[in-house]
Description:
The structure holds two protein chains of two kinds. In chain A, 1% of the residues lie in helices and 74% in strands.
Amino acid sequence: xxxxxxxxxxxxxxxxxxxxxxxxxxxxxxxxxxxxxxxxxxxxxxxxxxxxxxxxxxxxxxxxxxxxxxxxxxxxxxxxxxxxxxxxxxxxxxxxxxxxxxxxxxxxxxxxxxxxxxxxxxxxxxxxxxxxxxxxxxxxxxxxxxxxxxxxxxxxxxxxxxxxxxxxxxxxxxxxxxxxxxxxxxxxxxxxxxxxxxxxxxxxxxxxxxxxxxxxxxxxxxxxxxxxxxxxxxxxxxxxxxxxxxxxxxxxxxxxxxxxxxxxxxxxxxxxxxxxxxxxxxxxxxxxxxxxxxxxxxxxxxxxxxxxxxxxxxxxxxxxxxxxxxxxxxxxxxxxxxxxxxxxxxxxxxxxxxxxxxxxxxxxxxxxxxxxxxxxxxxxxxxxxxxxxxxxxxxxxxxxxxxxxxxxxxxxxxxxxxxxxxxxxxxxxxxxxxxxxxxxxxxxxxxxxxxxxxxxxxxxxxxxxxxxxxxxxxxxxxxxxxxxxxxxxxxxxxxxxxxxxxxxxxxxxxxxxxxxxxxxxxxxxxxxxxxxxxxxxxxxxxxxxxxxxxxxxxxxxxxxxxxxxxxxxxxxxxxxxxxxxxxxxxxxxxxxxxxxxxxxxxxxxxx
Amino acid sequence: xxxxxxxxxxxxxxxxxxxxxxxxxxxxxxxxxxxxxxxxxxxxxxxxxxxxxxxxxxxxxxxxxxxxxxxxxxxxxxxxxxxxxxxxxxxxxxxxxxxxxxxxxxxxxxxxxxxxxxxxxxxxxxxxxxxxxxxxxxxxxxxxxxxxxxxxxxxxxxxxxxxxxxxxxxxxxxxxxxxxxxxxxxxxxxxxxxxxxxxxxxxxxxxxxxxxxxxxxxxxxxxxxxxxxxxxxxxxxxxxxxxxxxxxxxxxxxxxxxxxxxxxxxxxxxxxxxxxxxxxx
Lengths: 607, 281
């Protein structure tokens, strides 16, 4: 990327480093599956670039440019530019881009291929020259380009189609923040616009099965979706000696407009019999208002007692409409035909109102604390998608309590645990649990001599009655970590072991009307070993992770290893070699399995 | 809760408020006094990023820096032992300047505090160059993983939120200093912090998908990582959909692959601007 150096005095302190190299890659098995998981490829790699200016004496001017990930080997690229000419003004420009790729042969999503990228620019100008206020202007631009290939269902067959993505978002935010007032206040006003002009194209005329005589002969759209989103945010916080209050409020009013026409045309019998074209010519709009706020308060009551109160509120209302017509255009091979029109005049609503409250009391001793409290909430949801839709209007109350305790000994060992129990009195969705019990325990210990150990347990049970969906969910996670670091930090290692057992049973109604059971079962063991050391002039780093899922849903196992060796060279140079090894093997199928090795050479220069 | 009984709530709020006490004020010991015994520490601090930031605020702020963090030092000057000085500053010392980190206030958002996590467990005081910004002892993902190992391990799963071989920084989505700032308000919108990056799924939609509007992305996705493609919480897409949808027409033959992936036809699972059956985006 191009860099424009700022006009700063010479003979000041410029520092930086640049590291780049090349990575080789060898994949056996399904390379698309590997790329879907990691997104990595063979090629050049800018591992790190950093250029910074810091004045040698007192002075507030700064310049920093960082970049990494460019070159083609990595799916993510980042660049950060910061320039502060004086203590009052700061300019930031951030860029990041992510390449997303998805192409699997197994699983339900096989057949959907995605290859797109999303680039995000953020510019921030901050003025800090006033003693009481800080002013910022933030500009954001996000753009998504690329393709998504997927089946198109038409005339009772599937045809291959491509969606060419063309989506962007622009946003400007003005932010005012107090610095010296007793109450810290942040006010933000933003204006955003989202635009989408995705375009369709056929990827072939024949249906996937290859035998159907009907062909796809037109697939096109000129639709344009646009929404404007002004948002106002106000946040305030006060912190006194024995009282703290923090609150926030947001209001957003969103206008959505969608216009344009879409065509799906098929040649019956290859066009010999005639053509049928489905045409959607619609204008859609929606208006959504969001009001949200929260308030958190804490009081030191003295003698180690602390009272906390909090509440959240969200009220979202949306009204939508769609007018126009859906046409079926029938024509004979000579082009003569007629239209069957279905006028569209629909309206819908979607309203959500959430309110929650929480009260908690805590008692702190010298090296321990206990706490307990209760929480309660209401949720009102109503929606109707179309005029003929009967709609839903559901209210739910929920409440629960929690108790917890923590203990620490000279900061060398700490133990804390919390139990939480909550119930819903009604349901919004049938997968909502009626009861939830959750227990978390965590032990941290500094054993001395550079050794430390942690252990954790988290268990959760939730269910609802068979009259709803017969939900029965259990999740148990256990783990421990042991680590050692030398006093100077030169040598160290750590070992992690975690096991997660998760089973969710949900009663379902099959399309044929019969009763069924959706069971998701995960039995996952994760073992990790990492370490670093220095052997003479060579610094070594290694990280290995072993995953094994023996759950009944889709068992798999994988290895992930990285070894990196770095050797200091002359005049601020460093040469490092790395090797990565990744495997992925499913138990029920081998189509998406892979073994991947990746290795590279990085040369770094510090100046 | 019906929020009709507001008077008791107001009383509950006001009664503790009247218990606020005035803060003590004492004459500070200057940095030069500290430098008489700790010249290296004082010099490196003043030249470091923390010291420079204090100096930029005011010369007086830097001058009283030692006592701001380590507490009143008059007794320590008279009798220099480790027993009459705060070698390990408490969070209150940091908050005396960084009051804008209101979300990390020990009274209102206590989860980290009451479990023994303090400012200096993640941040360094700035006596020497910090390994990461802002004054961090390491990159956020390394620091968080010290305690949140299970969450860190989820980034090693086959389908995970990664930037190439690295996991996302925890701070990209989580507001460590509490939820009183922008984070919670983004959560209050559609999709929470996810839409900060996935802007194409921000909505609203003419024909929304109710779970997304009510509960957000986490009804269907695991944010850190999953053994299932697209970070879904189920391997079979039809299982995920059928757990809510109980009136699916009978022609959906689940023995056929394309019916097991509901998204083959119902592509607009996050919401559609054109089709109530979510056939088109």
